[in-house]
Amino acid sequence: MAPTEISTIAENEFGSAFEVQIKSPNSQQKTAAQLRLESYAKMERLPRLKTMEGAPRSGERADKARQQNEQKREAAERVRMGLARSNDAKRQGLAEQLEKAHGLRQGAIHSRKERAAQHYEKVMKAKGGFHSTKIGEVEAKRQNLEEQLEKAHGLREGAIHSRKERAARHCEKVMKKKDDAQQMLAMSAAEAKQRLEEALLQKEALRDQSLAEIMTKATKHNEKVAQKVQEQQIAMESKRQSSKTLPPSERLLDLSMPWQMTILRFRLWRRKDSYTAQWILVSLYFLLALLAVRYSSWLLKVKDALPDSLPPWLELEELLMNVGGSHADTGVDADRECTVEELVKPGPLFVDDRVSTFSVCSPDSSVSVLEATDHALLPDSQADGDATLALPTLVPTSPTNADSAAHPAARDAPPTGPRFAFGVARYIASLHVVLGHLNARGLAPSSVYLCCWGYTWVPWFFMLSGFILCAAEMNKPRQEGPVEYVARRLVTIYPVYAFGLLLSACLTSAGPPCWVLVLQAWLLQAWVPTITEWGLQMQCWFLSCLVVYWAMFPFLFGMVHRMTMPQAILGMVLAVCVPILYLLIPDLFYGNASWYEYHSWGLMRNFEDSLVVMLKFHPMCYVHVFLLGMLLARFRILLHDIAGFKELPVIMDFLAPVGYLGLLLVFNVPMAAPPYAKLSARIFALLPLQAAVVLGLAGVEGLREPFLARFFARLNFLETYSYCVYVMQFICMKLWFGQEYDLSFFIFLIASATFVQVFVQKPSDKLWRLSPGQASWLVPAVMSLLLILLSLRWTGVPDHVLPDKVEGDGYMDIRLPLRLEAQDWSATGGGAFINPSLTLLEDGRLVVAARLHRRSSHLSHFHGGSLLEEIWISKILLGSVAMNNKSWKLLNRSGEMPEILLKLWDGLQMADGKPWIYPNMCYREKWLPQNRTMMRFVVTGPEDPKVFPLTRKGSCAESMAGCWVLRASSDFCHVNQSFCEAKCNSRWCSPHEVQVAFNSYTPKEGKSCDHRSVSQMFLASGIDVERPELVSQGQHLKCGQLDHSEKNWIPFEREGQTYVVYSMIPHLVRELKGTGSCGQQWRSIFPKLEEMQSHLLDAAIRGSASAIYLDAPNATARLPEPHYLALFHAADLKVRRYVHYAYRFAPKPPFQILQVSKPLPLQMLPPMPGAPPFAFASGILLREEQVILTYAAGDRESRALLMSLKQLDKYFE
Question: Which of 466, 458, 426 has its CA nearest to residue 556?
């Protein structure tokens, strides 16, 4: 019955009388009020009387309103009675229908019994020759069947009776709710209006009162804050004025009290969150670094050498002196007084080699100050053994200088031999390199595309080194051999490099062999491709190249400094274009321009890997970049001859910004990336843009300095620390105590680099200059001995080993205690247990499926060629262990669990009955005609199992073939096992059996492997874990592409049916049928995943493990509704790096993704020495709001991450 509707249909202008209509959708009868309104509309409008004689009386209006209200109540009462009668009639009709249905069912059952009896009599008559005892057995069976039918009839009657009772109770509830709703609707409109007005007035009064209180509190708070700010400003100003009058020693004592107060305040923060404490520690550490810079050279009395006019915000004179290029730490003769004329007079510095003291006054020096910045990353204040001080740092900038007043343009023109404004550019490039290394380790934000391009700045450092060396040499040539030149230059790089090597050797418990350490001590690691990627301080490979270029510099300079303008331009064009052959020549052999992508970091499997490493790190592969920098310096000198070109200053102004904009475009827009960027961006693709940055920041001598160079020159002191930032990056990553590598890590890195510069580089610089020739061979020899002595305490292989238990913030990570039976271990040759998967059976047993993995290779020869086989030994292992409540409590509390004994899954067979092993499987191979070699990749068995329950109770399958499809729950074959097998001719599926989904190369099955040598997904059902030798057949899941690799599907159960998540983008879910094909499919989109994929163009987002059903609103506060929990990963297959996430999706079609978590804290291991570490998630299990995530660390061991549902819920945003 449609609900009644009450609406106002008439109301006079005074609002004292109105009418309502209680009507149904089928009622079209007009009320008296409507008829009266229509009659009013037909009447002629009477003229309005000015007097009050014709106005109706108030008493008559009241009587009329009361009559109308009585009529309304009577109408409402009639409607209510009608509703009650109709509901009674419906209830009686429903009962009659139920009785009729019951009678029909009884008749059907009776007729079925009669037919069964008739059929039985016919059968008995047909088999009249049977023995009397056989007839008795048949009679007993029939009687048993009748008893079962009677029992089923009784159960059905009880179910019908309970259903009737529930229906009756439901009808009563519905009628009660309808009566309550009618009473509420029958309430007077005047009362409702009055109550609404009273509520609005009360709410308005409360709001006004609350606003008044808030305004009063805000006014008092603002007054207090303003007063405190004013008092603090006055105190700071008085302290600043008094501090100017104190000497540095008393000023240092004055700083001790604020330092003690800072320590006391930090104690108050101990109970705050760890992130705040992390920032406090980093800030204090950075403050210590600034104090170290300020007071490191205070005793050397260099205060008088500073200019008189300083910015008002820089009151720490020594700070400016140190970060701007102090000469006090490099041996400047501070006792000698210089005249103003000597200081202002342009000219190079002079060094007295006999006493190792510098003079900044003599114009007869034989060394140009330009060489103060001749290295790529290094501080120019220590780049040369002959000159360490830039002249502009010492010359007072007096506004009364006559020359400056007479020639205003001279203030913009760079003086002869100053430092170039490369400090900021070097520092930014160093930080970008660090960001790139963080990204390669999976520690940087994966959604920031800029992080992927940090490696491109290292060749730019070579270019910068060549440019500055050549510019300095052309400014003041000198005669010096390669050996002497390199020995003098080593002071700029070796002390910090040696300190980094020693510190790295002390921080690690395992490392490369001794001969590799000796090569690193002598800066020869880049010459041997097999060790470049896995030595200590691997990022310092560029120093090995830099030493070679310094040795070659005298010969290259003799060729470059005589070049004309056309020759210099031609040389720069060739330096950019010729390296294209580095990619094209190998392409002729491999037939693919992306041949280098097959190399994995740290792996040296064949000549191809060695060639990739050589192109990335070998010194001879970057000679053209160093030469390009020298040609740029020559080109800059030649531009001076066309200084009359009016547009040249404007071009120089825009040269560096255009170069930076082009680089930013490449670094942020994937479509702008050069092809084959991993090699081309290193060797040649970005060289024009980087050359524009160098030339645009250097400017042209005789012209005004480019505006970007003038801006960068203010922060040129940063170049002093850029080299230390580069060297210390991996050490700081190892020492970092924070959870995330955010801005606080970079502050920690900068502070550490500052300490190294102040306390390592500067003192070492003085000692080295006493005898550069002897130091150049003596220090590496001592370093070799120290590194060998430190390596004696190392244990194991040069890889770190994870402990048995790792505890973190709300989680615990343990090593799974898996063991293979002795006979199986000897039969297979052993290997690593990886990619474990767990499930829990009804009897409390924990079932484990894992993969036995080992690699090998085999080379054989045949007539006319060779066969090189790369073999992955792969077997699936199954096992179980009984877990009671005590065992689970012990696991959750201390991470201890009983040992799990695994067995080989020998019963797995193909459709043709053959065992699932090689050579019954297809394989992948490739013919290399250039060396007549067949490359064959072989996997000997199935891979990556995913185990999940078959059924929660005993069930009967549709056939004897397997348990892929179970019968409907109402089927009578589910009575027991004997009935299912004998009567229904089907297989009985036990709750102790499981299903295993796995991927494998396609079985041959008598067919050709053409276009079938790819990995596919398979499913085996009805597996008894205790007896894995029993035959079970793997069925091919033909839901995907048959000519492409299919893996990483996510299986899950819903209402007795198996589904798989086929892909993540889009989220495609498919239903599995018993034939191995797919039924329905549902597709949905999650915008956050699409955004992640847009930022990770080189990564593939794939599924992991299986999915589990969750309905725990108390433990999942961020999604209390029922849902499925699953895992996925973002895979960068070039470096084999995985980042794992958890996600939640809806339990009903279309299975829409609801939430995605932050990255999960899985422990990583390198698969072999020198290879990058990684982890791969493979299983998920839930028990009593405790989640267990299983994974393989570096293809070396199986581990499990344990955390509560509440803790996992915190990872979701």
Answer: 466
Q: What's the pLDDT tens digit per position in 768-793?
A: 888 888 888 888 999 889 988 888 87
Q: Which residues contact 830 (CB under 8 A, 6 or more apart)?
A: 820, 852, 854
Counting Cβ atoms within 10 Å, is residue 98 exposed (0-12), middle (13-18) or buried (19+)?
middle
1171-1206 confidence digits (pLDDT tens): 568 899 999 999 888 999 999 988 878 999 999 999
Q: CA–CA separation, 426 vs 251, rounded Å? A: 34
pLDDT digits (tens, 9 = 90+) for 827-884: 776 678 899 999 988 878 899 999 988 777 666 767 777 787 888 889 999 999 988 8
Q: What is the residue-averaged pLDDT of the chain?
A: 75
Please state at what angle helix 772-791 crosses helix 514-521, rounded to 10 degrees: 160
CA 160 to chain centre: 56
CA dihedral sign of residues 619, 622, 626, 627: positive
Sign, CA dihedral 885-886-888-893, equals positive
Angle at 1198 between CA 1194 and CA 1204, to 5 degrees: 110
What does 377-405 look like in DSSP terms, one character per residue?
SS-GGGS-SS----GGGTS---TT-HHHH
User: What are the b/e assignments for 27-63, b being 16+ CB within 10 Å?
Assistant: eeeebebeeeeeeeeeeeeeeeeeeeeeeeeeeeeee
Q: Which residue has the tokens 């009628």?
A: 175
Contact present, 326 and 381 (Cβ < 8 Å): yes
Given the structure tokens 């898996």, which residue do they identify?
818
**Torsion angles phi and psi, residue 965, rounded to 5:** -130, 125
Which long-range CB contacts under 8 A does 56-64 form with residues at least 24 apart? 61/12, 61/14, 61/16, 61/17, 62/16, 64/17
> Which residues, listed in sequence order, are joined to residue 909 by a DSSP beta bridge?
915, 1033
List helix spans (H) across 447-523: 457-475, 482-489, 494-507, 514-521
Catalogue the long-range contacts made by 253-256 (C-beta closer than 8 Å, 24 or more residues apart).
255/291
List Cα–Cα distances, 445 to 449, 746, 1130, in angstroms: 9, 14, 13
pTM of the model: 0.48
Instruction: Give me the mean pLDDT over the 979-989 stretch.
Output: 67
Helix runs in 990-1104, H state only = 1087-1095
The residues, any chain, with a CB within 8 Å of residue 167's CB and separated by 6 or more, are 94
CB 383 within 8 A of CB 469: no
Residue-wise burial string across 915-943, b where 16 or more C-beta atoms lie within 10 A, e elsewhere: ebebeebbbbeeeeeeeebeebebbbbbb
Instruction: State how far the alpha carbon of 199 is from the alpha carbons of 16, 208, 221, in Å.
Output: 22, 14, 33
